[in-house]
Amino acid sequence: MKTTYIALLFASLWPASALANDTPKHDYPTQARVEYAFYCMKQLGGENYDNLYKCSCSIDRIADQIPYEDFVTMDTFARGAKAGGERPEILREGRLAESSRSQFDKIKQRAAEQCLIAGNAPDQRRQQESASLLSRCPRTS
């Protein structure tokens, strides 16, 4: 009886220990992960299970590569590149801004490859729109 109990206890703990090894190297706040996933899903054409899986995988791979503080810095420079006006000029111009964006693009690209995210979101949207239009067309036999 004791042997069975020990075996069951070991078996129940084994999956948890296997999953623990699959956690990202760096710890990011949940809110940051969710915000990234929502933004990523928007870029991929909308909220659905497939995009959620890919985008949550992507932020996990990014977390494997860089600490959260570096992620915040790189993301700030990436988003600031599109900001208008004089104040955010520091986010758009200069070596630090350019190298940060370049490095972040490479990290995101590696994550996209690992998570099977297609290279171009507009192409995905066009394919989805075409499929939607085709499904509405009457079929002739």
Which characteristics define this entry?
mainly alpha, globular
Give an account of the 3D structure.
This protein is globular. Helices cover 74% and strands 0% of the residues. Residues 5-10, 15-19, 120-126 and 133-141 have low confidence and may be disordered. It contains seven helices and no strands. It has 141 residues and is mainly α. α2 crosses α3 (49-65).
User: What summary fits the major beta sheet?
Assistant: none
Assign the structural class, choosing from mainly alpha, mainly beta, alpha/beta, alpha+beta, or little secondary structure: mainly alpha
Number of helices: 7
Rounded to an integer in angstroms, the radius of gyration calculated over CA atoms is 21 Å
Average pLDDT level? 79
What characteristic shape results from the CA principal axes? globular
Q: Helicity level, as a percent range?
A: over 70%
Following the backbone from N to C, one meets helices and strands in this order, namely HHHHHHH
Count of DSSP E strands? 0
How far is it from the N-terminal to the C-terminal residue, by CA? 67 Å
Low-confidence stretches: 5-10, 15-19, 120-126, 133-141
- Strand residue content: under 5%
